[in-house]
Design a protein that fits this description.
Length: 606
Amino acid sequence: MHPFRTHTCAAIRPTDTGATVRLSGWVHRKRDHGNLVFVDLRDHYGLTQCVIDISSPLFEVIETARPESVITVTGPVVKRSDETINANLPTGEVEVRIEEITIESPAEVLPMQVAGDADFGEDIRLRYRFLDLRREKIHANIMLRSAVISSIRRRMTDSGFLEIQTPILTASSPEGARDYLVPSRNHPGRFYALPQAPQQFKQLLMVSGFDKYFQIAPCFRDEDARADRSPGEFYQLDLEMAFVEQDDVFAALEPVLSGVFEEFSDGREVTKGAFPRIAYAESMLKYGSDKPDLRNPIVISDVSEAYRDSGFGLFSKLVGQGSIVRAIPAPGASDRPRSFFDKLNDWAREEGAGGLGYIVFGADGEARGPIAKNLEAERVAQIKSISGATDGDAVFFVCGKQKDAEKFAGVVRERLCDELNIRAEGRFDFCWIIDYPMFERDEETGKIEFSHNPFSMPQGGLEALETMDPLDILAYQYDIVCNGIELSSGAIRNHRPEIMIKAFGMAGYGPEVVEEKFGGMLRAFRYGAPPHGGSAPGIDRMVMLLADEPNIREVIAFPMNQRAEDLLMGAPGVADERHLKELHLKLNLPKEKRETVKAGTADQID
């Protein structure tokens, strides 16, 4: 007999009755029922109930085994009586009578319980992540993550993509976030950078003659945590294709994503066929976001002209000064009490807006509310028509400069959806956001800068860069969005050196900077580069959606906390003088940090 197990803790069935088995695992629970003690034994696969009589000479051994101790038990499989069958367990019709027991590893008193659904603070959970990962839900999340990655790999390989690994130690690249730098011992004063994404390398692979590349790529960005973004590092399905247009990338990626989501959807509906395509400008108008949740049925509309030179003086004045007005319908809200509207108005002020005006269209067709009283009837009718409102609905309004009004209208849209409880459940709604602006103007400096990916091909090529207003130039850039979560960005790449130099020049980077930062890629392009493009859906975000988890840390085995600290391993840590000397480094810390570092208390550094 194997020294540790003949079966896993999920494998025993009534057909094993009478057989002597050996199981190993963790003590999940112990229950004292007078003359009998029941032990739920758990391993990676599941749970089996074991039982011992208090008269057994082994009883003292099991009595001393605390929860989460690792034990090995041996004994016969017996059927449970009908009244004790646990239909919720695959092994629930049988149990093992303990005849031998070995304590493989005793557990100390636990800082957090593994059994049960008790909630523990993030610091405790991350400091004792090895215990947290034993808990049923998060253990299942990590298993789901593994299965999702395996499915993606299979689908990509079956589609003719070649998996290739790209470097982790590389050069710094201005891609929108802060780099993590790694000092070089052999090259004093010089640094590697951890890749924010394999962007340049995957393009170089296309130039090298490979046709379809992918990898499950680690990416490193020194940025703050959010519910849908882990600080430090994350993983993405990175892919690139040669001799393709935008439609070809969509056609290659849609079956992979829809297939994976259908495989693990657990009955939830997934977008069928080609994903809807929504232009960036349209998305900002209709949804107030370039990450629209299409489960929300509310569609925003522009009603600026209905207020121009109107009797509602405030909006009329602002529209005359260049502001816009967005209308956000609230289906069926006309029967809500006045407190509903007052609460939303107060909330809008707390969010920094001037308030939230509204018109209520009663079931009798009469328009009510402060705005309706001061706005001409024909203009009220115009707003009703444009917004698609019907009798029984209300319409809320946001007025301001376009960028601010669009964004806040999107926030209002989501708030109303939640207040009215009209979001469709049990589904994954995908869409592509396309036609992003190539450039945008920095509000503080007034300078032109890239709005998305600097390596994208501008629509219209060099001619567009030379003849159009930079803010009117669109790019072959696209995002995949699912249920309001951005899964990836992608683009058809700029593979022409002269277009690349011109585009970077318009964003303030001279030819010498482009040569210095992207010399390797520029050299490659000068020796024959195919048109190419790709995308990079985030693995963590996909699993987060499939697991129905609101926080991305619930689907990552060893995540950092919101301050980018690894509480389990104690990172970031303090480097000693010997290590710093080897790397030719000296610390120049803010005064308040010096004593902390000198004392070596890395866990107190933020």
